[in-house]
Amino acid sequence: MMLLTKAIIKRTPDLRATDGQGDDAIVQAKFFHPMSNWTWFLLELEKDDTDPRGITGVAFGLVSGHEIELGAFDMHELETVRVHGLGIERDMYWDPRPLSEVRKSLEERRWA
């Protein structure tokens, strides 16, 4: 599955473009592995006009795994991950929403 479509790349802000927005920053896409609790929420993406896809692979967002934290991750790496033959998937029904909504949902699930 292609994790980043042209539409997602186009609408995702450049790296550091959402600095200062805090929980008002918009999560553009959600990626997950179907056999784990790991989830990546895309906020920013480093763009590169010299790359055929228009990205370097460096992304920034909220990562939910062992902990829930903001950080950088590599989209090219996510595309190569295979666990029991399954790769990372994109939530095809994801609608961009504020980071505050994502955090609230994760916290509710964490303590449920």
Descriptive overview:
The longest helix is centred in the C-terminal third of the chain and has 12 residues, at 99-110. This protein is an alpha+beta fold. It has one domain. A hairpin with a 3-residue loop joins strand 4 and strand 5. The protein has 3 helices and 7 strands. The strands form 2 sheets. Strands 5-4-3-2-6 form a 5-stranded antiparallel β-sheet. The chain has helices at residues 6-11, 75-80, 99-110, and strands at 26-27, 29-32, 39-47, 55-64, 68-74, 89-90, 97-98. Helix content is 21%, strand content 32%.
Could you provide a short overview of the structure?
21% of the residues lie in helices and 32% in strands.
Helix/strand order: HEEEEEHEEH
Biggest sheet: strands side by side, in what order? Answer: 5-4-3-2-6
Shape: globular
Oligomer: single chain
Tell me the count of domains. Answer: 1
Mean pLDDT: 93
E-strand count: 7
Helix share, percent: 10-25%
Q: List unreliable stretches of 5+ residues.
A: none
The radius of gyration over CA amounts to 14 Å
Q: Report, as a whole number of angstroms, the end-to-end distance.
A: 31 Å
Count of separate DSSP helical elements: 3
How much of the sequence is in beta strands? 25-35%
* Secondary-structure class: alpha+beta
For the biggest sheet, the summary is: 5 strands, antiparallel
